[in-house]
Amino acid sequence: MRTDIVHIGAGELNYEIRQIATIAHRISKLSKKPIIWENIGDPVQKGEKIPKWIKEIVSQSVQEDISYAYSPTHGLLETKRFLANRSKERGGITLQEDDIIFFNGLGDAVNKVYYLLKREARIIGPSPAYPTHSSAEAGHAGYPPITYRLLPEKNWMPDLDELRNKVRYNESIAGILIINPDNPTGAVFPKEIVQEMIGIAKEYDLFIVADEIYTNMVFDRKKDYTPLSTIIGDVPAVSLKGISKEIPWPGARCGWMEVYNRKVDSNFNKYISSIMNAKMLEVCSTTLPQKVIPSILSHPEYSSWQARRNEFFQKRSSQAHEIFSQCDNVIVNRPDGAFYISVVFQENVSAGLRLNIHNDSVKEYVNGLLACEMKADFSFVYQLLGAKNICVVPLSSFVTNLTGFRSTLLEQDEEKFLLIYRSLAQSIQDFV
């Protein structure tokens, strides 16, 4: 074309969590066997049953004509008021209804957070990084993500010295991203860690972006997990929350942003106003899921049901950790929140043909993929698909030099879960 129409950041957009599915579907077709999906965090797809009382609340709302109407642009007032009161009960910063903005899922919110920044303003985020954040941030800037390390040898805690140094010497950094509980590692950052990160933001006049989608999915309460709103003080911040993992209702595409200390800084205030104005161009977010949030989260059975879910994931976390701990040449930490586990290969593990693929058509296809130069974890993931029809995600696709893989703890059938994870462990042993 006579004019280049490609955005400068287009090459930074990558979401291997779903891209790997294209290869998996091809292998399934060649092998004539179904894929065991351990790549994406969809509890419903992995067999979790939605409680009857949640379905009854949704069914009742569906009968009301108002559920089919537009909602106010920034969200239903009754729901925002409910969430503000809920936050007030936890203590810390006081939220007003106008401090809450609804979006069509957190992906929508994440895109607004980054694409409405001045292009020269950067957000430093964790590595391994969740690709929705890292791709959106890098895409807006047109440069690779700026990251601070999460350390596998220290239970995935952030390298605060590295964070501080990068902030000190890179004046383009305007904000710090905290994902807590973390995806892809399952780490939970204790209160003192988050307080130090807030302190860095305060010292260098930055704002905080907190992805707290798993805020109610912490298994080990000894980790002293603390929501950002209770310790943010007077530092400008946004917290991203939603219902896709917690209820769970990922298909609802319903998430919201909580804004803290908006008026402390005039520049931050203008930035938040731009997000709100951009939302007006979309008219509103989906009405039905917004409408039922207060009824679901305040239901008498909600707290005990959520506690049982956390007990379930804690059990899966311990089972997966125990199985992988028997493997050589890997680093594995027991997840304390969310529902993922990341396994790290030691540096001496290299790419190569090691797993036995019995189907000739599949073997030919995988060998074709392996003909290209690639990191060890991509080689492992492709061979794992060919040999076992198990789909996991290469860890290096999460913006990190570490190699390994991420899988989920979502499988409801315990016998099947143990079979999958023992098969994964055997494949690790064969590979490394």
Set out the fold topology.
Elements: H1 16-31, E1 36-37, H2 52-62, H3 77-90, E2 100-103, H4 105-115, E3 122-127, H5 131-141, E4 147-151, E5 157-158, H6 160-169, E6 173-179, H7 191-203, E7 207-211, E8 237-242, E9 255-260, H8 266-281, H9 287-297, H10 302-324, E10 330-332, E11 340-345, H11 360-370, H12 376-388, E12 390-391, E13 393-394, E14 404-408, H13 414-431
Parallel strand pairs: 1-12, 3-4, 3-6, 6-7, 7-8
Antiparallel strand pairs: 2-9, 4-5, 8-9, 10-11, 11-14, 13-14
Helix pairs in contact: 2-9, 3-9, 4-5, 6-7, 10-13, 11-12
The fraction of residues assigned to DSSP E strands is: 5-15%
Radius of gyration: 22 Å
Summarize the biggest pleated sheet. 8 strands, mixed
**Shape from CA axes?**
globular
Distance between the ends: 48 Å
Q: Could you name the CATH homologous superfamily of the largest domain?
A: Type I PLP-dependent aspartate aminotransferase-like (Major domain)
Helix fraction by DSSP (H/I, runs of at least 4): 40-55%
